[in-house]
Specification:
It is built from 15 helices and nine strands. By secondary structure, the chain is of the alpha/beta class. A five-stranded mixed sheet has the order 2-3-4-5-6. A two-stranded antiparallel ribbon has the order 1-7. It has a two-stranded antiparallel ribbon with strand order 8-9. The protein is globular, with a radius of gyration of 20 Å.
Amino acid sequence: MLDIRPLNSELQKIATEILQETQEKVEKEVPALKDWIRNSPHLRARTDEQFLIAFLRFCHYDLEKAKEQIDAFYTLRTSIPEIINDRNPVNSRLRSLIRIGFGLPLPYTATEGGPRYILIRPQVWNPNKYSMQDVFKVSTMINDIQLRCDDNWVVAGQVGILDLTGITREHLMQLNPDLVNKMIMLSQDTYPIRQQAFHYINAPKGFEQVFSVFLSCMNDENKSKIHMHASDLESFYKMVPRHLMPIEYGGDLYTINEVIREWEERIFYFRQYFEEEEQQFGVDESKRSSKAVTPSKFFEVDDIENFLKSNTSGESSTCTRNSSQ
């Protein structure tokens, strides 16, 4: 008997009709994926069924694609210790960053089978106090928990909401191009996230110019899911139910601070999980039997940093997929 949470009826319908899940495939391919990991000398990956099924669902039960996804997931994580390692929420620096709530999965979905809404508020972190590396580190902690625990996130997907109220040049100048590129790779190409939409709200003047750089790093599918909204948010609330948002954004069910407290407790509960990820899992390229999958195979990046420093011309850097992918 596999140790996998049963889905509610709406999520099971999505899994069956869109992700091509059947009980027969679950019983056959989850053990097959586990056996492949055990027989891959270079790969040290989790083998619990709940973790593995997330990748199978993301890959629509294409076993070979799921293998590639898990390999890429751990290959990239091994190459970015500055983000993945030292994720101890007891650390006072990370703890204070968690408590400001810059990135929050919201507690309610529109339906039982609806996607998870994620509210991102870059304006709440002080760029003179916290580094972008710290911010990305906490983001991966939240994503790891979602991957493990949130069936809506895995099956129905994610809707991102980026509130750019109060963002400053100092925030933008923190965007180290190498670090940002790695985070884009991690979220877009290795996490089994079904990105349904991404909404940008309250964008300051000139943001479109900076955003064009990061837009060039996204694949065409994700580009098509981006929505920019005016400050009155009229178009935004036509796409995202107002009542599902925090009270501070016009909702009526909860406050931002309530969500922050809930996530602080959840992150602390998973502190041993983060320690295991650092100490027990990853890849050893010296033991890989096939050609290594390295982060450079995902993207090539031009000079984003110079673009951000100038931030005055209409020129745009480019970021394209390597043709060898």
